[in-house]
Amino acid sequence: MLRLPANANDLGKKVKQFYFQTRPITSDMLPELMDVLSDNEYVMATVTAAELVAKFQPKVKHYCYYFTHDGRWGNLKRLLNMYHLPGVCHGDDVFYMFNSALNATLPGDADEVWVRQAFVRMWSNFAHRGDPTPDEGELAEGLVRWEPVEPCAGKSYFKLRCLQIDRSLKMVANPFLKRSTFWRELFRTYGYGSRKLPE
């Protein structure tokens, strides 16, 4: 039998209140449910990993991106019959990095083609030079300077800088701040597995 801690109901109520407020959970609330699942499965792990590297390996340059291009190569939503929902699925970025039989054939001036070219160019720069930032000529083509995650050794505050990848590229800070702050507080209060986060 699965043993739940005595405060499991309290924890569940806090999660429900944060994402759904007082509304009953129905099929109309799929976007909110997707946020819960995304935060629990991907977002917090990504943010925490970036913070740990920034804190304990401050000399290591590392880069984070936030893929938001909800384009016609977002094949996972189509395969899952969720194409009507806003946003991208985890893994949709792969269809922009690599060709796939699932990708629709699009004209060369399609947004998806531009996003792929920009994304692959920056990944190639990183593989070749250890830095995804394009050279000056590429900046004129709509690419931007991809800044590394800022080191935070000795600081109490972590600011996640990441490249938002869409039809236009831009650097953003803390795109999930409210949600990651909520989860950090849960981990501090209730622990993560058998461990609690330090104050």
Features:
glycoprotein; mainly alpha; 3 strands; 7 helices; flat; carboxylesterase; Rossmann fold
Instruction: Trace the largest sheet across and list its strands.
Output: 1-2-3
Helix run count: 7
Report the uncertain regions: none
CATH top level?
A: Alpha Beta
Look at the structure and name the CATH superfamily. Alpha/Beta hydrolase fold, catalytic domain
First-to-last CA distance: 32 Å
Give the % helix.
40-55%
Count of discrete domains? 1
Question: Order of SSEs, N→C?
Answer: HHEHHHHEEH
Number of strands: 3
Computed Rg:
19 Å
Please, what is the average pLDDT?
88
Class per helix and strand makeup: mainly alpha
CATH topology: Rossmann fold
CATH architecture: 3-Layer(aba) Sandwich
How does the major sheet shape up?
Answer: 3 strands, mixed
Descriptive notes:
It comes from Anopheles melas. The chain has helices at residues 8-20, 30-56, 75-79, 94-97, 111-129, 136-139, 177-190, and strands at residues 65-67, 161-165, 169-173. Helices cover 43% and strands 7% of the residues. The chain has a three-stranded mixed beta sheet with strand order 1-2-3, with no helix packed on it. The chain has 199 residues and is mainly α. The chain is flat. It has one domain: Rossmann fold.
